[in-house]
Amino acid sequence: MDKSIDPELLHQCAKCGACTSVCPVYQVTGRESLTARGKLHILSRLAAPGSAVYSDILSKCLLCGACSEVCARGIDITRLLISARSSLPIRSDKHFLAKHSTIRNLGSPALLSGLSSLAKIAGKTIRKLPFDSGLRRKLSFLNPDLITQSHTRNQNLLSRLQPQKTKKQPTEFAYFAGCLATHLYPDIASSVFFLAQALHSGKIDKPTNQACCGLAAMAGGKLDEARRLAKKNINVFSSDSLPILTSCASCFSQLKKYPDLFSREPRWYEKAKKFSGRVVEFSSFFHERLKDGSASLPPDCDDLNKKSVYYHDPCHLRFGRHQIVSEPRQLLTKITKQPPVELPLGPQCCGQGGLFHLSHYDLSCNIFSHLLDEFDQTTAKTVVTTCSGCLLQWQEGQSESVKPYQVKHLACYLADFITETP
Length: 422
Ligand code: SF4
Ligand code: SF4
Prior knowledge:
Blueprint: H1 7-10, H2 24-29, H3 36-45, H4 52-59, H5 66-70, H6 77-86, H7 96-106, H8 109-113, H9 115-128, H10 134-138, H11 144-166, E1 171-176, H12 178-184, H13 186-198, E2 203-205, H14 215-219, H15 223-236, E3 244-246, H16 249-256, H17 258-261, H18 266-278, E4 279-281, H19 282-292, E5 309-311, H20 315-318, H21 326-336, H22 355-359, H23 361-376, E6 382-385, H24 388-396, E7 406-409, H25 410-420
Parallel strand pairs: 1-2, 1-3, 3-4, 5-6, 6-7
Helix pairs in contact: 11-13, 12-13, 13-25, 19-21, 21-25
One iron/sulfur cluster binds near residues 14, 16, 36, 72 and 73.
């Protein structure tokens, strides 16, 4: 992946419009220029883009991949848009400061490690804001109560894991935690460890010094930064060839794309290919192991805890080269003995989109409110998902819902289910 776009690719668009019907941004704006067709048209006509309007149009995309999925010409639209973003003059984007500092913070372990403490300080300010304040909603990812709960739960789960640590069994897989599980909600990581133990599926190790997966940098067109983070992660996991499990859908999709970043660096391309070939999404990993008999359900895991739960599909698992849609549902059904409820109109994007939420907050909320209307029609009182961005969006939207609901990472939900089953 690089800054130059092959003009031939832009002219491949047949203008059929199939992409408009699936684009979440088009659905709430009705603007043709914001569809894949519209953006490709603009890219094909403007040779030297640099205006704020042009940057704004390119930034109004969630990179969800729904358009590429239905495109009869098979155009990799998100890849083209990322290349286009990477060639924009840095100050042409009116949100460049916010995006730049987010990408910079995600790339710095020192800054990220202070996030929990920052949340505690910010919490006092957040509580003073009016309940319906937009700023309060925007800062809800720093909710100190949720972060404290997560740390307490993390300690409980870790204390249950202690006996396993003393066993001299070989490590069977490595774990890539991602920024949310590392710096804000550590109970996601300990839930994955707990599941590995409870399902008897092998010893897991979390190498230290992992970096951000680099998705935000790539989505913002900062390809050099995305490469720097990718190289760091490839090196961190290079001491063995174990499968690399990740519990974040967005990280999974980015780690799988590492080879795309090194098309001009053959040595790193080979390393990245080897690395991404080892990456496995956690729910499909446990599902496969239960299916082939190399993992088993705990004996006391039965159906006494039946609750109505909705599984939200992250776009990064719903579209693209590595689609994982049925495995999380099947794992959930196998453990809880109850299939998750579905939305009347089927899976929908939550509108978070990382940097998109930061720079186009109203659009992001608007897309989410459509999803919430659907969710409100179901019997579910719990939302589970596996993407860091989707989790934050669902948490943030709790105040908007006509019915109260809980939000949990799928790993946390399953670990809770097993620990609470009498
Ligand atoms: S990636 Fe998603 S938001 Fe962007 S143009 Fe395609 S469908 Fe629309
Ligand atoms: S679906 Fe593909 S070919 Fe059709 S208009 Fe959209 S981008 Fe062009």
